[in-house]
Every structure is written in structure tokens, then in C-alpha cells.
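User: We ran a pulldown and think these components assemble together. Before we commit to crystallization trials, I'd like a predicted model of the whole complex to look at. Sequences follow.
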Amino acid sequence: MDNLLSLWNDSGLAQMDVGQGIMICIGLLLLFLAIRKGFEPLLLVPIGFGGILANIPGAGLAYSAVENAIHGGDPALLLELGKVLGVAVGEQSKALLSAYGLGGAEAKMLATQLANDAGFSNGMLYSFYSVSIASGVAPLVIFMGVGAMTDFGPLLANPKTLFLGAAAQFGIFATVLGAVYLTSIGVMDFSIADAAAIGIIGGADGPTAIYVSSILAPDLLGAIAVAAYSYMALVPMIQPPIMRLLTTEAERKIEMVQLRPVGTREKIIFPLVLLLLVAFLLPSAAPLLGMFCFGNLLKECGVVDRLSDAAQGSLINIVTIFLGLSVGSKLVAAKFLDINTLGILGLGIIAFAIGTASGILIAKLMNKLGTTPVNPLIGSAGVSAVPMAARVSNKVGLEANPHNFLLMHAMGPNVAGVIGSAVAAGVMISLVGG
Amino acid sequence: MDNLLSLWNDSGLAQMDVGQGIMICIGLLLLFLAIRKGFEPLLLVPIGFGGILANIPGAGLAYSAVENAIHGGDPALLLELGKVLGVAVGEQSKALLSAYGLGGAEAKMLATQLANDAGFSNGMLYSFYSVSIASGVAPLVIFMGVGAMTDFGPLLANPKTLFLGAAAQFGIFATVLGAVYLTSIGVMDFSIADAAAIGIIGGADGPTAIYVSSILAPDLLGAIAVAAYSYMALVPMIQPPIMRLLTTEAERKIEMVQLRPVGTREKIIFPLVLLLLVAFLLPSAAPLLGMFCFGNLLKECGVVDRLSDAAQGSLINIVTIFLGLSVGSKLVAAKFLDINTLGILGLGIIAFAIGTASGILIAKLMNKLGTTPVNPLIGSAGVSAVPMAARVSNKVGLEANPHNFLLMHAMGPNVAGVIGSAVAAGVMISLVGG
Amino acid sequence: MDNLLSLWNDSGLAQMDVGQGIMICIGLLLLFLAIRKGFEPLLLVPIGFGGILANIPGAGLAYSAVENAIHGGDPALLLELGKVLGVAVGEQSKALLSAYGLGGAEAKMLATQLANDAGFSNGMLYSFYSVSIASGVAPLVIFMGVGAMTDFGPLLANPKTLFLGAAAQFGIFATVLGAVYLTSIGVMDFSIADAAAIGIIGGADGPTAIYVSSILAPDLLGAIAVAAYSYMALVPMIQPPIMRLLTTEAERKIEMVQLRPVGTREKIIFPLVLLLLVAFLLPSAAPLLGMFCFGNLLKECGVVDRLSDAAQGSLINIVTIFLGLSVGSKLVAAKFLDINTLGILGLGIIAFAIGTASGILIAKLMNKLGTTPVNPLIGSAGVSAVPMAARVSNKVGLEANPHNFLLMHAMGPNVAGVIGSAVAAGVMISLVGG
Amino acid sequence: MQGSIVNQGVELMLFGMGTVLVFLTVLVLAITLMSWVLKRYFPVLETAPEANHSKGAAAAPATTFAAGDATLVAVISAALHQHRSKHSDR
Amino acid sequence: MQGSIVNQGVELMLFGMGTVLVFLTVLVLAITLMSWVLKRYFPVLETAPEANHSKGAAAAPATTFAAGDATLVAVISAALHQHRSKHSDR
Amino acid sequence: MQGSIVNQGVELMLFGMGTVLVFLTVLVLAITLMSWVLKRYFPVLETAPEANHSKGAAAAPATTFAAGDATLVAVISAALHQHRSKHSDR
Ligand code: NA
Ligand code: NA
Ligand code: NA
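Assistant: Here's a predicted model for the assembly, 1572 residues in total across the polymer chains.
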């Protein structure tokens, strides 16, 4: 009879709260969007599934050993935990959790020892998160793989498109402003680090967003990653209206000059040039752009195809599985079901829109100032969201002029946008993170 | 001359004891069975090889830094270790080892610091074991890969076969009873947690057995894993006599109705249904069944083939290598050469036999009660041992009736058995492990 | 304005010192040699790139959290660090760094806690190094992959060629003598452990050299690995003059007897025989040769092709990426730009030359003593550098006699050299490392 | 004490086997319900995703292949084999 | 305090956007310089490595293919398809 | 002190080189013994596993290929090339 009670008490139905139910539904929704609607499935399937796992009541998969001990420990253990965490006797588990979150390394170690001795251990997703994201490794490895899949040929053929990639990053910083404004008027409650992490959604680049959030705002990581990947999937819906609004039919019909062929040596030297500029100008962007350049060099140098294949094949696939599940571990009800999440979702879409608009407007300016014709539609590709945004530029261009193939032209600003947002990430980590 | 002595003292021959010699022979035997007789070679080749490595005298590959320090340290170091582990001066290394095994997290950390400072480090296999099994990660990742290789079509076409998968788990619990009985009459010395871990051999599912043992009875893990994989390889010898004994010729000739085709959407939704049931009813099974469902969803959803291929390809292969070597690290003489190992081997085969019999008997019952004909031979496939047990059902069926193809029908109970033993694992972890 | 200053102070140009500039140039040189000249690109591309990353001023990618805290912390933090590391107040960061390097495990842990609490974390490359090399795992896994790619057929067909593989290891020990001699006359400053690690360059085997250095001389690892891989790439230039000098035209023309075919069973049993010899005679070589034999058994046993493919495919490729970057992390200016590095480079090439000469001379002796003809050119392949040295033997042989195909005959001493240097590594770890 | 561990074993068996049975019974019900709901309320959609998964019917060109050209088929497949055996050395 | 975080945000925007622009402008200059140097000082070498990368021109045999043999092409590609569809089941 | 490290080096050389020689000599003996035992006591089994490993002789179909059909071979290989160059763009 005791066992029956114990089984029932251990069961999910007995421990479920409303928040967890809602989060499980959100996880199912993400899976539906990913599988049925094709929303960035490579990330959103693991994230959605991880979100469901993280909210299984009583399983504690997303919690550390100490958090699990605080949720499930007996009063004697809580008393001891309170001692090492400096919380007065009689206070609730919430105070313990917050003291653990804010505690120094020594207090954390002592609390972990107590929890382990009492038989509590880290949840599966918590372990995945520690190894893959808290260490910073997974987003960097994925960025290396992205580098090994990126062709900088179009960018090298027309380096001026880098300006479009720069312009589109205005979406990032405008969003930072928006976030601090919402805080200043008391609607939301974001720190400047939170605001910077939210802004990076406008970079339209998943691994960059996850990397920055893991450093500047780990608590918001779940919402930021979900927003970033969802809006990247929605690019074909978000961008075209803005593109049509800001360009004339004549501009959309502009045909661009055929790109010159780019030599192997240029492609090999480019990642090294970029790396050296990062080294000299912005070391805080070195992990992200360093791994990106490394992946690209593996691909272009032509003598290490084994490594290049691993970087863009088995390695990135394996890491994506754990990265996705780990992001899902941040979708626990207590942290996700919050007014701030709504703010993040709202600000994120504004970031995409402003980035798109900035890219187009600067492209129009370049078209006015320069001699070679620039179709402003390629400006929107500067937000990155590779290669979706470039395809959108091509599609809207074809609608206006069926002989106008913008895809390769848009790939220049598209990959420039990746570099641009990594640079922005470096600046923010340097200014806000230290 | 000192060097010559030092080299000789370091050599294996000088340090070898009988137990290590026997264990090396057992390792060679496992390799022979795996390579020559085809006994589950994917696991038994690494396990056998790891077993040999673990017993190399003087190498200490399977020991932690502290254990290596206790074996090889000078008296001054042993004195200091004794202090932090609370063992009186003058006692032997055996007391130190046992105090280290039972010690709290803090004592372990201090002892490790002492051992590291004295130049001792973790053995290679100990490191593999910590990362892959003690963390719980490797069996879970392999279970994900198994999920990505499993087709639930036959089960969905005929859900009633789940009862056969349930029935066969009786082998697990009957074996638990056997183990506690042997303990109660003083023949063996198993705790209830040991008994539960031994019972899971009857689940005929390698990763589940390793996962449960790593939590409930790490000391017995080597013997349990070896028994589980050996008996899975022996299924074509263990099951047919029992199947022929419990069925009549007429029953074995029963032809089953062609299975209905199962749609893609059913296959996509099934892992989510299973996950939600686990979440609501048995959260302690969430890690195992969660990863299993995740792998299956990756495979079935059709939009993340990269991840599905990684899960059932490079990732599972890599993890299998380290899992096997790590299991081998538990084949050290001191722990394996024990009367309890004989008990485990004996109880394990009983578990298989009872599971087989239960599955067949329930299948006979279903045949009596229901209207659609059920060939009782598919009941034995409920023990899992995928896909060997299903093939055995098919083979025995063909012997009785050359037109009777039971393979697809037996795949239903076969994969049901995987779910059933994972559920049993969850119950045992919930009741015994907490 | 503060931000502008902060950005400038964070930039690489403001923090760059001459040493870092030189090391970045060395990194670029390694990349040039690897990509343009084909110098062992699989390792030297990641090593060169890692070397550049490690020397990005201000990024601290190759430093631990504590080292980063010492470089960038405020005086209060340095004071606290000084306390736990036992350094008097007012001393400089250099004293802190050296105290941290020499400190015990407890002092290191306390210092790490302080650094983490102050917001400093391990650099990316430092993390890679800890996980892949300091743990010893990466070289061992690569050795397993090399084992899975090695065919022992030619060695088994003509076991006497093992003597050539033994002879060539004289280069290792002669170099040890050279290193201690240079130290004794005051030119260099190597400990006996350093000398042993430098000698292993003569083993002409990358993972063995990295494994031994990581244990005996971690500070010299960067220079040793760079020397080992560079000279392996230079084998076609280093060896032929020595080969021509030590052999007569008539000797170079000697045609060898066709090798007998070797059966599958011999190939399966060989790695086990080798493993047992290691277990009985030289346990300190067990990690290296154990993993090597394991990889070879996976390949030859024919029943675990999945695992063999993983070991020589995705797994070795992934590990190579991180091993290379991690080796690069040891190319920091402070440690590499040192007179000792010149000594290592000079001694390394002497090791290759002596190894080559010893192999050839012993081959000449075998030719004199035995009845079956031995072409002395295959002796040089005993240094390993698989398969480059065997190809060099073949090429020089073809120059003397266009019908003289030595490739398969040279593969015997070639793989024997791998075993020989792993044995030498075991002896040195046993005698010097303990 | 000896009775105690046997009691624990019996309890573990009863609750364990009970849970397995209850869980798998609920799963049978859930699967049956799922299949019924899909068949009843979303019948048309079923074929579409199936077709998406079949990935370009390779059968079509094969059926345009004139029967009786057995010799040609043999020649071509020999060429294929030869071609492959040449290139598989790489 | 409220003003303060807005100020921080404005500063972050100015310095951040400025750095992005400066960095990418320098990158444009560096790329242009690199391409110019390569074109100006190492012009001959360029074609060689390109050829190395193209890995055996598959075009040549195709162009020797006599036009008008459309039927044969159809037959052969059908054979190929059949061959593949047979072997893709594995 | 200076003499001491040289002595250590000499000792390391003697014992190291000695161990390498002894170990590899024992290995030579062990290999020779193994091969002899296999040949002497298990001679018949040897061919069977070898055959298992050769994995389907691809040569047979190629030899049935009639000589003199050089033109057809050229046509077919051109078709193959064309087919591949078309599909390698993916
Ligand atoms: Na971007
Ligand atoms: Na089972
Ligand atoms: Na060697």
C-alpha cells in the first residue's frame, strides 16, 4: 500500500501543475510547426522534444542535483543546504533556489556534495546543457560546421555587399534600445545584458544567438532560441511585405552584373584575412568567428576533406541533437511562462523587420551612389537566415522580372550578415559581458 | 640495476595474480564467442577486450586515481589518505578501498586531490566509464539510436500484441523473487537493489540492463551486462525448446491475418503518445523512454534525416565503442570472480526462460479469448532481444507450417517488449533506487 | 567615451606584443606548409590555426580561468588569488602564474573558484586541451583509429622485419642522450622527463609523441608535436640522402622474395598476441598499444564493421579536429619562443636521421647474416612515419632497379616501427614518469 | 530480516508487474484511440504525406524499357560492373 | 536609474553599430587588397590550383557523345534507373 | 649534478633500447609460433574465412563482356559520365 502511494506520488499526474501542462503543449506546438510546417526542423524538433522532457512533472530532467534535492529532499537535508547556501532556517525552497543561483563557486560545490550524498543527481537534460551549452562548445562547433558549409565566392566577387550585411545588423541594436525602453517605462524587466541577448535575435543566426544568450542571459536562452529559429523559419512571410513596401517596381526589376569567377586561392586566404582582422580588432569575437573561419578553411583548403566532411557531417549532426535538447531544457515553465517571454517574442520580430528594412534602404543608397546597378531586394538578405533570406530576395525579384536571378547576388549580403552579427555579438560580449 | 628491478617490478608477470589470469581468459573467451560464434559481436567484442585491459596487472586502467594511489602509494600517502577517509592508522589497503567506496562526496574529493598531487591519475577505462556510464549518457544515447532504428508499424497495426510484451516482463520480476529467495536462504548476498538489477536481465535489452545496473548495482554491472548480451545471443538456443514444450503442433500452424498498412502520421504521433503517457504515469522511466521516443520521432518525422542518420549511425557506433570498453572495465577480478556472479548467470537464464514462457502462455490465452487467430509462437518475442526473438518465432513457425510467415507479426510483441522492460526499469528505479 | 576606450583596450592591436605577432606568423607558416606543400595537412592545418587562435592578444583562448584572472583581474582579486596560492602580497602576476602551475590540487581548486566567481572562465582552446589531451583520450582514440587502418599482413608474412622496427627506435634514445648532454653543458635546460619526451619525436609517430609529451612534458608539447609532424612530412627529403650514403648500388638493387599470403585468422589473433605480451611484459604501454590492438581487432575480426568504420572514420576525424586545435593551444608565445624550442627542433631532426641510419645498418646486418635476401632500403621504414617512409623505401629502390617493388616489404618494418615506438614510450613513462 | 527482503521482493513484483500491465493497457487504448481519430477525422490527409515520403518514383523509366532487350541489359550491366570495379580501387 | 539603462542602451547601439560598420569596412578594404595583390603579383599560379580542384573533367567524354543517339541515351538511362532501383532496396 | 642527468640519460637509453629489443624479439617468436600452430593444427579452416571476406567477385560479369565492343563501351561510359555530371550538381 505504501508502494502504491509511492508510485502514485511519483507519477506525473499527481505532481503536474498548470505551467508544466502549458509548456508541454508549447513543446507539441513547436513539433507541429517543425514537422508539418517545416519550421527549421533540424533545431525545432529537438528543442520542442527537449521542452516536453524538461516539463515532465517529477522527473527533474532539466534540474541540477541541488535543484532536485531542494524539490525532493527531506527537511533535514534542506536545513543543511540552507546552512551552506546561507539561507535562514524555516525559509522556503524558493529562497534556497535563488540563493543557489546567486551563490559563489564554493557554496555551489558544497551544496552539490550534500545533494550527491543524499542520492540526488543532475537531470539528463541538465547534463546535456552543462556539457554542450554552458561550456560554450556546442554553438562554436556548429558555427565551425556552418563555416565548412559556406561559400564566400559571391561575397569575394562583390565585397561591397558586406555593407548590406552591416546595415542589417541595425535590427540588433534597435531592438536593444527597444528592450531598455520597455524596461525604463516599467513594462518589462530586462538588464542591459538581457537586452543585448534579446537584440541578437535580429542577427537571424541560431548558433550566434545561443552563444550570446548562454553568456549574457542564460535564463532567457530558451525564449531567445525559440524566437530566433521560429522567425528564421518565418522569413518568407516576414520579409516580402517590407521589401515591397520600401522598393519601387522599377527597383525590383534591376538586373545585376554577372559576378566574376573567384579563384581557389582567394577563397583559401579569405578566412585567414578575416581571422587576422578579428585578432587585431575584436578579440571578444574570436571564439565565434575563429571557429567559423576554421570551418571555412577546412572546406576551401582542399587538403583535409576528411576533416571538412566531419565538420559539416557527423560532428554537426551529433552536436545539433544535443544542442537542441539542451535548449529545450531551458523551456521549463518557471522560467518560460513569464511576461518577459512575450516581450522577447515581440521584440524579436521587430528586430527582423528593422534589419530587413535597414538592409534594403542601404542597398537603395548604394544603388543611388554607385555606378554598377544594385537591386535593393538583395539588401534584405543581409539579416542572414542563410540561405532562406537569399531565396526570398530571388523570389521577390523573379516576381517583378522573370529574367532576374538574384540568388547568387543575394548570397553575398547573406553570408556578410553572418559575419556582421558575429561581430555585433563580440561587441556586446566585450561591452556588457565583462 | 635499480632500473632493471623497477622494470621487472612494473612488468605484468611480476604483479599478476590468479584472478587476473582467469579474467583475461574469460575476456578471450568472450572474444571467441563474439567473433567465431557471432554472439552479439557489436557489444561483446568491446566488452571482452575491455575486460582484458581491465585485468592487465599493474596498469590500473579500470581504477580511479585514489584506487591507484592505494595500490601503489607509499606509506606516507596511505597515512594521509587514511586521515581524509577516516580509517585508523596501520590498517590495510582493503579498509581504505572500502572506506573510499562508501565515503561522502567531500571525503572523495579530498582523497582525489591527495592522489593527484602524488602523481596518480584515473585509469583510461575508469575515465571512459565515468563519462559514458556513470553519467548515464551512453545507454541513453544508444537507446535513442535503437529508437531511430525501430519500426513501430507492426505494433500499431496490431496494438494487442503489447500485452505479449507486458507478459514477458514477468521474467524480470520472477527473477527478482528468485534473487531475494537465494539471499534469504543465505546462498547469495544480494540487496533488493541488486535483485532488481539482476531481474532486468530478463528484459533482454542491453542498454536498459546497463542503465538500471549503473544506478542500482554498479558493482554487478559487468556480470549483468555480460549475462544480458550472452543470453540475447543464445536466444535461438534458449527459446525453441520452451516454445515447443508449451505449444501444440496445431497452435504452431496457426496462420495470422495480414497486418493492415500503417500511415506515416500514426507513426509520427505514436512516439509522442508514448512520451505523454510516460510523462503522466511514470516519470522515472522518462530518461530511457524519452530518448527512445526521441530517436523514433527523428526517424519517422521525415524532416530531420540528417539527425536520424547520425543517431542510428556515427553517434551510436561511437558510443557503442566506449560503452563496451566501459562495461569491460567492470570485469576486474576482485569484483567478477565471486559466487554472486554465478548466481547472476544462473538467475539470468531463468529470467529469459520465464519471460519466454509467460509470453507464450498469454498468447495462448489471447488465442482462446479473442476472435482473430493468434499464433502463440509470437508470444516468445515479447522478451525483446530485437530482432533475434522475432526471427526465432518465425523460424519455429516455418518448421511447423512452411507457409506461415510470422516475422512481421512477431515484431509487434518484440518492440512491445522493449517498451515493457523500460517501464519495468522505471518502476524499479522509482521503488528501489530513491 | 569610456566605451570607446574600453573597446580600444580590448582590441588586439592595443594588447599585442612582439611574441604574439611572431607566433601568428609561425601559425600562418604552418598553414602554408600544410596547404601548399602538403605537410601532414590533417594535423598541421588544425595545429597552425589553433596556434593563431592561441596568440590572439586579449582573447585568452588558451588560458585557464585562473590564468585569465591573473592577466585581467583587478588588484583585489590578485590579492585573494595570492592568498590561496601562497604568494606574498605585492608580487607580480608572474609569481602567481608560476605558483598556480606548481600548486597542489586544493590550491588550484580554490583559485578556480575565485576566478569563476569574478567572472573569468576557461578559454575555448584550454577547454579543448583539457578534454582531449590532458585527459589522454584524444591520442588514444586516434591510435585506435590508426590500428583500425593498419594491415599487419606484411609484418606477419615476414616477422623478422620487427627487428628493423626495433633498430630504428635507437633514434629515440640517442636523442635522449643528446638532450641530456646539451643540458649538462649548460646550452639547454631539460629535465630527464623533457629529454624523454623530446626523444620520442624520433618515433615518427604523432599520437605517441603527443601522448608521451602530455604526460612527461606538457609545456613542450607544442614544439614536440610541431617537430614530429613537420619531420614526418619531410621524410621524403630527410631519408634518401642517408639511405644512399649507407648503402651500395648493389644492395639497393636486391630483389626480395615475394611475401606469402597471410590468413584471416592470423590477422585476428595477432592483435591479441600483442596485447597479451604488453599485459605480461610492459603494462605502462597498455593504454597506447591496447587501444591500437583494439582498433586492429575491430578491423580484422570482420563482425563489427560498423565499429571499425566509426573508429577509422567519423570518430578519428572528429577527434583529429580537436586534437589539432588543442596542440595549437600550446603554441603560446610565452612557452614556444624559447631557446629550448630550437633545441627540440634540432634534436628532432637528429632523431629522425639516427633512426633511419640504425634501421638501414641493421637491415644490412640481417642481409649478411641471413639466407633470404633483405634489401637494406626497407630498414629506413622502421622509423614508422606510416606510410610515407615505406613509400620512400620503394621510390629509392625503384631508382636503382626499376623492377624492384619494395613497398609491401617496407610495410613490415613500417608498422613494426609503430609498435617499437609505443614500447619505447611505455618504457620511458614507466622509468621517468612515475 | 530474511522475511523482510523476500517481502520487499514480492512487493516489487506485484507493483512492478501491475504497473507494466496497467501502463501497456493504457498504451493499447491510446494507440487504438489515436488510430481511430486519425481514420475518422483526418482521412484524406493520410495519402498526401505518404506520397511525399516516396521520393520520386524510379519505377517509371524502368517500365518504358522494352521487354526482350535482355541482351542489351546484360551488356549494360556488365559495363556498369566493369566501370565500378575500375573505379572502386580508388 | 531608468534613464541610466536607456543611456547604456544608446551607448551600446552607437558603439556596437559603429564597430560593425568599421570592421566590415576594413574587411571590404582587406578583401579588395587581397584580390588585387593576387591578381597583380601571382597571376599565373591561379589557374593551376583551380585545375587541381576540378578533379578530372567529366565533360570531355560527354561531348564525344554523338548527337542524335537520343534513343540509345534513353535506353541506357532506363537501364541505369532500373539498376539503381534494384540496388537501392538494400 | 651534471653528471647525474647524463647518467640518467645513459641508463634510460640502455634499459629502453634493451626493452624494445627484448619485447620485439619475443613478439617475433610469438608470431612465428602462432603461424606455425595455425598452419600445423588448424590447416583446413583457413580457406573458409578468407572466402567470406572477399565479398562477391565483381570480375565475373566483366569477363563475359565480348571483346571488340569497344564502341559500345565508349558510348555507355559516355552515358555514365553524362549521367553522373548531371546528378553530381545536387
Ligand atoms: Na546576421
Ligand atoms: Na524486454
Ligand atoms: Na616509430
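Residues B 203-205, 383-384, 417-418, 420-421 surround sodium ion (ligand 2) (CB under 6 Å). That may be worth checking against your pulldown data before setting up trials.

User: Thanks, that helps.
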